[in-house]
Design goal:
single chain, globular
């Protein structure tokens, strides 16, 4: 009874959801196999148009294959809770390093980055056990200036938050309309302090914006490491000194002629630099626009990392990405409901979810070896970790408090700068066998996958109050660029020696490897949708039947599978607090993305394999355009800058318009609606999902005025 009381966390299977989904699997699988049987037997026996029939069979096989890979997500979804009151005292908690990465001040506003830094500094965790590192891959001097300004402002901001128990410790959020839910009981003293704090923040914001206006990345620069705030006890001489975490600015060396390694290289640099400065055993990774919304997130993660039943094999605790600017209609599916409310919970029940790239607390040891095994890398440390003996020694004692006092000497800072140089990783195993992998541009997702293949586990925590909040894409271009990057990167892994159905299945559970296979092979859906959206209407126009007659029993099988898919999706949406509008918007944007971003992702992989294109990190623009924001909030699709992505879909829409009306005319004249009903319905559905594209093709009065002007 006492052991149960002292439990740090709990895990429960979501019922009746799991049972309902397993029953649906059986029924849907029966219908899917029946359709494939129908296709193959008719193809073998003849009497059907061979080429169109083969292509439709290929499309339906792809749909069936991807559907099959999604089933492990639905097998054992779990929900987790934590018990913060059972954690040890603050002085017994382990140290935590926070890594924040920014790459280009022209696309990632510096004020926004500093808000993330300030929110991280405000975590409810012992300040002498917390360190915040900013990796500035832009290398702009203005960012270093902004860090110093943020540190000065934090000396007023953090005591204010602690005094009044403010949870949203991102000042931009707190002073916006979003943050008005804080402190329902507002005293005169609080309002006076709040007003003074607002003036201080406005001054800080003005200083940073004035200095960073027009700033851009410096692509040829030496490494630089700067201690912005020293949190060592020996350095806090003043009696009323504000307790703040260690704050470090890191700008690694960058040369146009040398490999850059993108975000993976930045994170590996932070691993090394933090190793000789703060050397915490755990780390939190945050995108520069994903700020801390719940001060207890670190302690919540420790409820898993400090659990003796989990800690030996637990690599990371993943939180969901929640976005504060998702509109009520959410036409681009910016909230990614399917991932964070269904798929991640499903993977958590069968060995661990994927690493999302931000909002996760990771055990550093996991990046250097396998659980419960003597790491072979320590046998020849310099061949693995590089020439720095100080860093190698830090790996042997990750929580050595005795070396804290004399750490930040000139020699130590010089060593930290050397660890951030381009040449340090030469002839080492960084990015190959240790640290974040360089084999994929999706460094965190791929590295998380490799950790699972080594035997590490992960957990997924979806608390009632979002621990991290970010800003989602608000136009079609950014949504397409982001999805193309993900689909291309994952598909490349699927075609490599690390493919989940062979490499993964031999090193993790078959269910978990199927989940990874879904993420890596789902871009193939673009091929299936393209075949469905072109072959079927062309045959409709020419009077060639590809489906059984509507009165035939086999047609009922096709209809049952289609309705089953829609109902399954509807059930998932409604069971995760969604609505019919959510369901419709997800159906529509899924179709649009498949014929655009996923298709271009496949093409990108082909071009890279042929040597036509090179690996390129596409940074999503985080600067908010007011006009785009207004369109997004109204539920109006914004295709500006996304015309290239829309070419295949536009072609398919125009084809379906011609074929639909031409096919209807032929059906009426021939009187064979019963025979052609399947294709008529399919073409009509394509046009229904593509309505935003059709609307965009017809010039509005406002567009005409713009053109005339």
């Amino acid at each position: 009874m006492a052991a149960a009381t002292m439990s740090l966390n709990s895990c429960s299977v979501q019922q009746p959801r799991a049972t309902a989904q397993r029953l649906h699997m059986l029924l849907h699988l029966t219908g899917t196999l029946a359709i494939l049987y129908y296709r193959f037997t008719n193809l073998i026996h003849g009497g059907v148009p061979t080429l169109p029939w083969v292509l439709m069979t290929v499309a339906e096989f792809i749909f069936s294959f991807i559907w099959f890979l999604t089933q492990p997500f639905r097998w054992r979804p779990v929900a987790r809770t934590v018990s913060l009151h059972n954690l040890p005292d603050d002085d017994l908690l382990p140290k935590v390093d926070i890594f924040i990465c920014t790459a280009d001040p022209s696309k990632e506003p510096t004020v926004e980055v500093m808000n993330t830094v300030l929110s991280a500094m405000g975590l409810d965790y012992p300040s002498d056990k917390l360190a915040v590192y900013l990796s500035d891959d832009g290398g702009a001097p203005s960012t270093l200036y902004a860090m110093k300004e943020a540190c000065s402002f934090a000396k007023e901001w953090l005591p204010f938050c602690r005094k009044y128990g403010i949870k949203s410790r991102c000042p931009e959020w707190f002073f916006s309309s979003y943050g008005h839910d804080e402190l329902l009981f507002r005293t005169d003293e609080f309002e006076a302090d709040e007003q003074n704090m607002k003036l201080a923040y406005d001054q800080f914001k003005e200083n940073v914006e004035r200095r960073t206006n027009g700033a851009s990345a410096v692509n040829d620069r030496p490494p630089r490491v700067a201690i912005i705030n020293d949190n060592r006890k020996g350095k806090r001489n003043e009696e009323n000194e504000v307790q703040m975490p260690l704050l470090v600015y890191v700008s690694r060396e960058r040369r146009p002629s040398l490999p850059h390694r993108f975000k993976a290289g930045a994170l590996n640099t932070l691993l090394r630099v933090s190793g000789i400065l703060s050397n915490a055993p755990y780390m939190l990774v945050l995108d520069c626009d994903m700020y801390c919304n719940e001060p207890t997130s670190a302690k919540q993660a420790m409820c898993f990392h400090l659990d003796p039943k989990l800690s030996s094999s637990l690599a990371f605790v993943q939180y969901p990405q929640i976005f504060y600017n998702v509109s009520q209609k959410d036409i681009y599916d910016g909230q990614a409901r399917s991932a964070y409310k269904t798929k991640y919970q499903g993977m958590d029940g069968i060995g661990g979810t994927v690493c999302a790239g931000t909002g996760y607390y990771l055990k550093k040891q996991a990046l250097y070896g396998s659980p419960n095994q003597l790491d072979e890398h320590h046998l020849r440390p310099k061949e693995t970790y590089g020439e720095s003996t100080i860093f190698i020694d830090s790996l042997k004692a990750s929580n050595n408090e005795e070396t804290q006092t004399d750490r930040f000497t000139t020699a130590i800072l010089k060593e930290a700068t050397n660890l951030a140089s381009c040449s340090y990783e030469d002839n080492t195993k960084w990015g190959k066998q240790i640290g974040y992998s360089y084999s994929s541009l999706l460094e965190s997702s791929f590295t998380g996958y490799l950790l699972h293949t080594k035997g590490w586990k992960s957990v997924y925590l979806y608390p009632n109050r979002p621990c991290f909040l970010g800003c989602t894409t608000i136009d079609m271009k950014d949504a397409m660029v982001q999805l193309m990057k993900w689909s291309s990167g994952l598909l490349q892994v699927g075609f490599s020696k690390f493919n989940p159905l062979v490499y993964g299945a031999s090193r993790m559970s078959i269910l978990q490897s199927m989940c990874y296979a879904y993420f890596m092979y789902s871009p193939f859906l673009s091929i299936a949708f393209l075949l469905y959206g072109t072959i079927s209407p062309l045959c409709l126009l020419n009077g060639v039947s590809l489906y059984p007659q509507a009165s035939n029993t086999w047609f009922k099988v096709f209809a049952a599978v289609y309705v089953s898919s829609l109902l399954q999706h509807l059930y998932e949406v409604l069971s995760t607090d969604g609505s019919l509008v959510t369901w419709w918007n997800e159906q529509r944007i899924y179709f649009i993305k498949c014929i655009s971003a996923l298709l271009f992702g496949c093409a990108d992989v082909v071009m890279k394999s042929l040597g036509v294109a090179k690996a390129n990190f596409r940074l999503t623009n985080k600067v908010v355009d007011k006009e785009k924001l207004e369109k997004y909030e109204k539920g109006t699709f914004d295709f500006e800058g996304a015309k290239m992505f829309m070419i295949p879909l536009t072609f398919m829409v125009l084809l379906n318009v011609v074929c639909f009306f031409g096919g209807i005319k032929r059906v009426i004249s021939n009187g064979n609606l019963d025979e052609m009903f399947g294709q008529v319905f399919l073409s009509w559905s394509t046009l229904l999902f593509s309505y935003p594209i059709l609307k965009g093709l017809v010039p509005s009065k406002q567009k005409s005025k713009t053109i005339k002007a």
